[in-house]
Design brief:
The complex is a heterodimer. By secondary structure, chain A is α/β, with parallel strands linked by helices. Chain A has 8 helices and 7 strands; from the N terminus they run ααβαβαβαβαββαβα. Chain B is mainly beta. Chain B has a 5-stranded antiparallel sheet, with helices on one face. Chain B folds into 2 domains: about 100 residues, Aspartate carbamoyltransferase regulatory subunit, N-terminal domain (Alpha-Beta Plaits); about 50 residues, Aspartate carbamoyltransferase regulatory subunit, C-terminal domain (SH3 type barrels, Roll), CATH 2.30.30.20. Helix content of chain B is about 10%, strand content about 30%. The chains are: A alpha/beta, B mainly beta.
């Protein structure tokens, strides 16, 4: 929706295909063919797809620029740009401490953000349920780039030390039953009480939508920046579209 | 470059051949010990075959300790097959035999890009669908693994099970 909003504010129009049923892929058309066809209809393609690498594939078949708006559990680079912008509104990014909380294995926003933060000398703290840690290949890659990554068992262990608390949704389908999910999810819930000892300038970010990860009582806190972050998605995506369309 | 040498023997083989010489075909020598059956699999031989095939496993080798050898008659390997063999046995040598003579002898070289030879381990990767693309992997520095250029998944061990 934010890409559509961005395009509208630029004075352009967008053709949205929100489900497989709404296009020829429902008849068995490949993504490659769909992209070839859509290339003739638009000046740029913004793709969100459940398979990792779908945007890369699209870029190989498209005759117009392709923007990855999320590919499965892979990457979400446009979200990362607005995340960086939101952090930069509050502080310099270089050398800060950032905590990533939640499903870091399948959370594409966390993957892209961690990769981008490795360019800024950021110390990364990770807090995730067992089995949902950062993918080992990504962690190895980040460490290879010189990033310091510290894994913690709980948010309380690190809350006093971090400048940015980046919270992601823990998806229910990752757990065998509802009880397991609720037990884990409740231990990763951000509350005003949890932030009592935090740095004054700490900001809490979330790519949204949230479910139970952030107590609504936190919404009024000066630490809460997730709605501002969401709003930043529009100008950042306007800039991206302008950049690729020219 | 072509080297003509008198026989298909290897320096390591010492006193004699373990299997009979072939008139025409390919001898894959210096295969890492125990990998011969995987090389045969790479050659696409998984059931019956009309070609004469000889396999020697864990043969003593001066340089390697133990090595495997595969001889296949009336067949020369494609570049893609050689690249796949390089992945599991980077010291292998390919000897092309014509009329009982070794007409060409070359080592294998791990390519920097592997196209269409390896299946991505990630079931969520776009290459695991019916899209008209081949898998593409870059070889990590020092050959320590392969990285999928579509989903970034990395293979660091048990590579053989992913070779198509």
């Amino acid at each position: 929706m934010s890409f559509e909003s961005a395009m509208a504010r630029l004075g352009g129009t967008s053709i949205s295909v929100s489900s497989v049923e709404a296009c020829s892929m429902a008849k068995g058309e490949t993504l490659a063919d769909t992209i070839r066809v859509v290339s003739g209809y638009a000046d740029a393609i913004v793709i969100r797809h459940p398979k990792e690498g779908a945007a890369r594939l699209a870029s190989e078949f498209a005759k117009v620029p392709v923007i990855n708006a999320g590919d499965g559990a892979g990457q979400h680079p446009s979200q990362t740009l607005l995340d960086l912008y939101t952090i930069r509104q509050s502080m310099k990014i270089d050398g800060i401490d950032v905590a990533l909380v939640g499903d870091l294995r399948y959370g594409r926003t966390a993957h892209s953000l961690a990769s981008a933060l490795s360019l800024y000398g950021v110390r990364l703290h990770t807090i995730s349920p067992p089995g949902l840690e950062l993918p080992p290949s990504l962690a190895s890659s980040l460490i290879g780039k010189g990033m310091e990554i510290v894994a913690h068992n709980s948010i309380e262990d690190v809350i006093k030390d971090v400048d940015v608390l980046y919270v992601t949704r823990i998806q229910r389908e990752r757990f065998p039953d509802s009880t397991s999910y609720f037990n884990v999810a409740s231990s990763y819930r951000i509350t005003p009480e949890l932030l009592a000892g935090a740095k004054k300038h700490l900001i809490v970010l979330h790519p949204l939508p949230r479910v139970d990860e952030i107590d609504p009582r936190l919404d009024a806190s000066p630490h809460a920046r997730y709605f501002e972050q969401s709003k930043n998605g529009v100008p950042v995506r306007m800039a991206m579209l302008l950049d690729v369309i020219g | 470059m072509k080297h003509i040498v008198p026989a298909e023997t290897s320096d390591d083989e010492g006193e004699g051949l373990l299997v009979r010489r072939i008139k025409n075909g390919t001898v894959i020598d210096h295969i890492d010990g125990g990998e011969a059956l995987n090389v045969v699999k790479i050659l696409g031989i998984v059931g019956t075959t009309a070609e004469a095939l000889s396999i020697a496993t864990n043969v003593p080798s001066k340089d390697m300790g133990k090595k495997d050898i595969v001889k296949i008659s009336n067949r020369e390997l494609s570049k893609q097959e050689v690249d796949r063999i390089a992945l599991i046995s980077p010291r292998a040598t390919i000897n092309i035999i014509r009329n009982f003579k070794v007409c060409e002898k070359q080592g294998v070289e791990i390519p920097t890009l592997i196209v269409g030879s390896v299946r991505c381990p990630n079931p969520g990767c776009i290459t695991r669908t019916n899209e008209p693309i081949k898998s593409r992997f870059e070889v990590l520095p020092d050959g320590k693994g392969l990285r999928c250029l579509y989903c970034d998944s990395v293979i660091t061990k048990d590579l053989t099970s992913y070779i198509i």
